[in-house]
Amino acid sequence: MTELTRRDARARLAVPTVAMLPKIADSLSFLYLDIVRVVQDDTGVCAQIETRRGTETVYIPTAALSCVLLGPGTSVTSRAMATFARHGTTVVFVGAGVVRTYSGVQPSSLTTTWLEHQVRAWANEDSRLDVARRMYHKRFDDDLPEDITLAQLRGLEGHRMKAVYRLHAERQRIGRFKRNYDPERWHDQDPVNVALSAANVCLYGVAHAAVLAMGCSPALGFVHTGTQHSFLFDIADLYKAELTIPLAFASHDSPDPEQAVRRHLREGMRLFRFMPRIVTDIQNLLAPESNTPLSRQPESDLVYLWDPQHGALASGINYAEGD
Question: For residue 78, what pLDDT band results from cuts at 50, 70 and 90?
Fold first, then answer.
């Protein structure tokens, strides 16, 4: 067997089959990398780390990851990015420790089914308010009157959040607490605010990965608006009272609250299979009447022609009548 043949064989073995590729709802977690070079070799995608002993190589299970977070000091080759895209792995470029999310790259194989659900719900004021009401109900499990306005909804949300902060401050016996976020004075904030900001940024990163992986737009928020991350803020808000706020208050006396809350949040997300939960919640928010699992949605390779009367029509057909 020639060297070229052997390399071809290794490359074929490295290509996963459809059955091997997990869906986003089955993926467990994300991978954060910094100060490495990410390349594709004959076997797969790997991270090359420069050490005193030379270059060390760690292979990345691209097909089993929903999201790869590339931090400062990383570089990635186009061949590696092509493999991430082929395996449906979202790549997000972030700041140190995932305290910022700069941009994300979606794989081209995603269906537009959930993006279309999102746009339909967002473009109509009544359906947009319906989604905002469902978000509030999911956060606090409160029944709301059908004629409630968005202003009344904001007022209720503010009261509930103050009560949540007060409850956890009393439990941890730290006295009066006021939420304050100032990225320009990050290390001057009190431990709970630092921990809470760090945990929320992690939450935004995971929400970003889930939203991109579903093919939705991070920009089309139902409560938040005006930024490319509006929908991420909507989704992350669903879990703050349950996840990040209790963890931040519980980490207030840690020597490094920022590091402690990140570690506990990552462990909790993995143990409780948080990514599938986000995906299911987004589906229920955007299209509660739909009972089709994400894994059964059509792949984007199937391109249709839109018709307002007949729905989706097959493409690649000449619809001209006569000769």
Answer: very high
CA neighbours within 13 Å on the CB side: how many for 49? 11
- Distant-in-sequence, close-in-space partners of 161: CB < 8 Å, separation ≥ 6: 179, 241
For residue 97 the two structure tokens come to 């420790």
Rounded Cα–Cα distance for residues 234 and 25 (Å): 19
What torsion do the CA atoms of 44, 49, 50, 54 make, to the nearest 10 degrees?
A: -60
Residue with tokens 């989706």: 312
DSSP string, 112-138: SHHHHHHHHHHHSHHHHHHHHHHHHHH
Task: For residue 221, give the 3-state DSSP assignment.
Answer: coil
Sign of CA dihedral 40, 279, 224, 169: negative
| Per-residue pLDDT tens digits for 131-150 | 999 999 999 888 888 888 98
